[in-house]
Design brief:
This protein is an alpha/beta fold and about 250 residues long. α1 crosses α6. The chain folds into 2 domains: about 150 residues, Arc Repressor Mutant, subunit A (Orthogonal Bundle), CATH 1.10.10.2910; about 90 residues, no CATH class. The chain is about 45% helix and about 10% strand.
Length: about 250
C-alpha cells in the first residue's frame, strides 16, 4: 500500500533541502559546492544506516513482475534504516553511480526529512509488521505524491538552485532560458514522449550544457534536464511552461 502523505508546496520542499545543506555546511565548517557530498550528508550528518541487498528477493517480488516496476530503494522511517538495491552499488557498477546518488538523496533526503513524522501512523496498527519498510520505492509508483515529493527533494538537494543558476551563467554568460525546439525532435516508433525529448536533447547545444552540468553535479543528464526545466532555464517550444520575462536562447 502506498504511504499517504499531505500536500507540500514545491517551494517548501526546496527550502527544506536548502536548510539541510546549510546545516551540513555549518556543522562541517565548509562551503557547499558541486558535486554535493550526499553520502556524508545521509550517513554522517543525518546518521542514517545504508545497506545494499537484492530488494526484489528480500521483498519476494519478481524483478520483472508485471505492474510492479523495478525497486530501487526502501526505508524504515521508525529506525532510519535504508536499503538500496544491489544493482545500484557504486563499487560494483561505477558507471551508474549517479543513479545511486539520486536514490540515496531520495530515501535519506526526501522520505526521511519529509515523511518520517508519519512513521508512527503509517503502520495503521500496533500489530502491523514493523519488519517491513515504511516505504518501498518502485518505478511503477513514481507518480504517487509520496514519490514525487521525494524525487523533488532529491533533485533540490543534489542540484541546489543557487549552484545550478551559477553554473548555467558560467556556461552561457547569462540566465536566459534555452528553448528545446519541436522540429529538432527525433521521433522513433514506440518511444515515449520523454525518450523522444531526451534523444533530441542530445543533438543540441542545450544537451551539451545539460551533459556538462550533469557531470559537474554528478547526476544523470535526464535528472539535470528536468531540474533545468523546473528552474525555468530550459523550455520546450510549443508546450505549456511558466512564463519567464527574459529573452530566450533557441538551440
Amino acid at each position: 500500500m502506498t504511504l499517504q502523505v499531505p500536500y507540500l508546496a514545491d517551494e517548501a520542499i526546496e527550502r527544506d533541502a536548502e536548510a539541510l545543506l546549510a546545516q551540513f555546511a555549518h556543522a562541517r565548517g565548509m562551503a557547499i559546492r558541486a558535486p554535493i557530498p550526499i553520502e556524508d550528508i545521509i550517513e554522517k550528518h543525518l546518521k542514517l544506516r545504508v545497506e545494499f541487498d537484492d530488494l526484489h528477493r528480500l521483498f519476494g517480488v519478481p524483478r520483472n513482475g508485471f505492474g510492479v516496476g523495478k525497486i530501487f530503494g526502501a526505508i524504515w522511517l521508525e529506525t532510519g534504516q535504508i536499503y538500496i538495491d544491489e544493482s545500484l552499488d557504486p563499487e560494483e557498477h561505477p558507471s551508474i553511480e549517479e543513479f545511486y546518488r539520486f536514490t540515496l538523496a531520495h530515501e535519506g533526503g526526501g522520505h526521511w526529512r519529509l515523511h518520517r513524522f508519519l512513521a508512527n501512523t503509517a503502520r495503521g496498527s500496533l500489530f502491523a509488521d514493523a519488519q517491513q519498510p515504511t516505504v518501498v520505492c518502485r518505478t511503477s509508483q513514481a507518480k504517487e505524491r509520496v514519490e514525487f515529493q521525494a524525487n523533488l527533494y532529491a533533485s533540490s538537494l543534489l542540484m541546489p538552485r543557487k549552484l545550478v543558476m551559477q553554473a548555467w551563467c558560467q556556461r552561457f554568460g547569462n540566465d536566459h532560458p534555452g528553448v528545446l525546439r519541436r522540429q529538432d525532435r527525433i521521433v522513433v516508433p514506440g518511444d515515449t514522449e520523454d525518450e523522444i525529448l531526451v534523444r533530441a536533447f542530445d543533438r543540441m547545444r542545450a544537451a551539451e550544457a545539460a551533459q556538462l552540468l550533469a557531470a559537474q553535479f554528478f547526476v544523470s543528464p535526464t535528472a539535470m534536464r528536468i531540474r533545468l526545466e523546473r528552474l525555468g532555464l530550459l523550455h520546450r517550444e510549443g508546450l505549456k511552461t511558466r512564463i519567464v520575462a527574459r529573452p530566450a536562447l533557441f538551440f
